[in-house]
Amino acid sequence: MGEMRTAGRIWFALGALTAVIVALATTGVAGAATSCSEIPTVYGIPPWGFHTGSYTGERWFAKGHGNINLEANTVSGVICQQDRKGVIIMSVEHHLDYHSHHATKWGYPGNIMKIKVRVTTSNDPGCAVGTVGRATLYASYNGVRSDSVQFFFPDACRDQDHLYHGTEVNNQVPPL
After folding, report:
1. Residue 86 in contact with residue 122, Cβ under 8 Å?
2. Total number of domains constituting the chain
3. Is the pLDDT of residue 29 over 70?
4. Model confidence at 15: pLDDT above 50
5. Enclosing H/E stretch for 121
6. Are the C-beta atoms of 133 and 157 separated by less than 8 Å?
7. Measured between alpha carbons, how far is 97 from 93 in angstroms, rounded to an integer?
8. Is residue 110 part of a domain?
């Protein structure tokens, strides 16, 4: 009988420990989901990708990457944007709205793509999960560094409308 009581206590302790571990893991996942550190910064030439420089805590930044099929006019991927209001993580809607290898922006030729994004995680109280916005990614070419990424959101999420442009922005938009 003493052995059964000891075994019962061990099983109870293991069950309690398991519950604590699950609770901590769940909390960790939720916390990680609101951090841009969970979205890798992709360098080189991915199918598409960008980063807007390092986050210093004094301004906003964004990064994202994904796949694209220009023949099928489809796109996928993940984007994260962080500013003083909070962090939003977005998925890229499947249909590619627009793309061109013959774009001019900031006075320079380059590639451009326009996509729809959907907020999947947010700790910005004004920008709810499910909000649909748009993003325009422009990559200059011929050795010019004048790339840009711009976000457009409806009124409730308007504080996440940001334009990134300059030498810190590294944007890879594939040609046709």
Report:
1. yes
2. 1
3. no
4. no
5. strand 108-122
6. yes
7. 9
8. yes
Averaged pLDDT, 22-49: 56
pLDDT band at 1 (very low <50, low <70, confident <90, very high): low
Instruction: Give, for 30, the enclosing helix (H) or strand (E).
Output: helix 2-32
Query: What's the helix, strand, coil split of the chain in %, to 5?
Result: 25, 45, 35
| Residue 82 covered by a domain | yes
Reading the block at residue 22, the tokens are: 């699950």
Q: How far apart are CA 76 and CA 101, in angstroms?
A: 19
Question: Which of 133, 138, 135, 134 is CA-nearest to residue 148?
Answer: 138
Tokens, residue 136:
């325009």
Q: Between β-strands 163-165 and 148-152, what pairing exists: parallel, antiparallel or unpaired?
A: antiparallel
- Structural domain boundaries, residue 48: 36-172
pLDDT tens digits along 78-123 = 999 998 888 999 999 999 999 998 898 898 999 999 999 999 999 9
Q: Give this prediction's pTM.
A: 0.75
